[in-house]
Amino acid sequence: MKVLVSGASVAGPAVAYWLGRYGYDVTVVEIAPALREGGYAVDFRGPVNLEVLSRMGVLEDLRARQTGGSPMRFVDESGRQLMRLPGEFAGGDLEVLRSDLSRVLYERSRGRASYRFGDSIAELTEHAGGVDVRFESGIEETYDLVIGADGLHSIVRRLAFGPEEDYVSHLGYYIAGWDVPNTLGISGDALMYNVPGRLASVSADQRDPARAQTMFLFKSPELTYDRRDRPQQKQILHDAFSDLGWYVPELLKGLPAATELYFDSISRVDVDRWSTGRIVLLGDAGYGATVGGMGTSTAIVASYVLAGELATSGGDYRAAYERYEAQLRKPVSKTQHGGNRTGKFLAPGARFGIAARNRLLSTPFFLDQMLKLGEKVSNLVELKAYSIEHSSVEKGQLVQE
User: Fold this and answer.
1) What is the C-alpha to C-alpha distance for residues 335 and 376, in angstroms, rounded to an integer?
2) Which helix H or strand E contains 370, and what residues bound it?
3) What mean pLDDT is predicted for residues 248-267?
4) Least packed by Cβ within 10 Å: which of 18, 26, 367, 382?
């Protein structure tokens, strides 16, 4: 069967690896001209996530690239420490840069799938024999199945399910990040500075200590802006933070020259049904949260489940899609809704909220309970062992339980 996967960040290469291993003819299309560089660190927690990475054969590759966690130190305007969170709070059992994860998954999957960078889906037409796809490049092809693994602003979801505003809910905050020269001499902990409704953060680049990475977050009603207009987004950030002290003026000085800017709302995706006909959503496209919803680790596990159900369905993709959703809908909703609290946690709207957060998380018992809750929520999926007889996979190779 010919399968088209839209998106080459995390979920796309992961599901391409598994489907290619099961003998599917897989093409991955990515709008960017190459793998995306930069991005924040992402984490994996608990045995379920690590087991899937192990079954993919990438666990040791990722351990060789792990950051070791990113301790966070909240400070006041003078730099005095108010609270410190250990690396495992955000880093879990394994933390890597998103770009490193994407690269490892791409390298692992490209022998089993074809990648088409710098192109995108323009039109989807489903019929009894498959899905006709017209690409922005003008190429037209027919596929048996189409998987939308193209993130919060999914093109596949828009074309097959409906407009973005029907499925994406704004959660009251915006988040941004860019690289700057490390003229401040930042090292060690990420430094976090709060005023009500706003957060500014800076940390040393994991690879190049001469560079630093920022994270800015602010509370706001939903804004109208062009997602492709970087100067407009930079102006929004400047207007939101230009009155603050601490290191903020110095960090904003590096914004005009930034060639890579991440800017997006903190939002949640809710789709009543993850598939329609031959088309299915995977990862953030179907059940994402911008930050704090464990979306990366969820996408890795979901890719394993979706591919396994398709491989063992005997060609009945409808039944495979139903089993995929039945296994994941409940646990995914629990991880996903963690994103509802991220903005309020990082940038409480009042000084009282900032003080209360700092006080609670400075208590070892409360911090320990939060860490245990995070691991519990990460491991709600019970992994099935998928075993099929196929020339590209030894019989029973995946039966490890």
Assistant:
1) 10
2) helix 364-378
3) 93
4) 382
For residue 215, report the phi and psi dihedrals to the nearest 5 degrees: -140, 120
CB atoms within 10 A of CB 61: 18
User: CA Rg, the chain, in Å?
Assistant: 21
Contact between 52 and 14 (Cβ < 8 Å):
no
**Helical pair 364-378 and 351-361, crossing angle rounded to 10 deg:** 90
Q: Where would I find the H helices in 98-256?
A: 98-109, 155-160, 230-241, 248-253
The model's pTM is 0.90
Mean pLDDT of 99-108: 95
Whether the CB-CB separation of 21 and 112 falls below 8 Å is answered with: yes
The H-assigned helical ranges of 22-147 are 46-56, 59-63, 87-91, 98-109
Asked if 98 contacts 89 with a C-beta cutoff of 8 angstroms, the reply is no
Supply φ then ψ for residue 214, to 5 degrees: -105, 155
Average pLDDT, the chain: 90
| Residue 292 confidence class, pLDDT cut points 50, 70, 90 | low
**H or E element that contains 319:** helix 317-336
Neighbours of 299 (CB within 10 A): 28
Instruction: Evaluate whether 114 touches 26 at the Cβ level (below 8 Å).
Output: yes
pLDDT of amino acid 394: 35
Strand pairing of 25-30 and 113-117?
parallel
Task: Parse the chain into domains and list their residue ranges.
Answer: 2-70+93-168+267-340
- Bridge partners (DSSP) of residue 218 are 174, 198
Q: Which CATH number fits domain 2-70+93-168+267-340: 2.60.40.4070, 3.50.50.60, 3.40.50.11890, 3.10.360.10?
A: 3.50.50.60
pLDDT at 8 over 90: yes
pLDDT at 87: 78
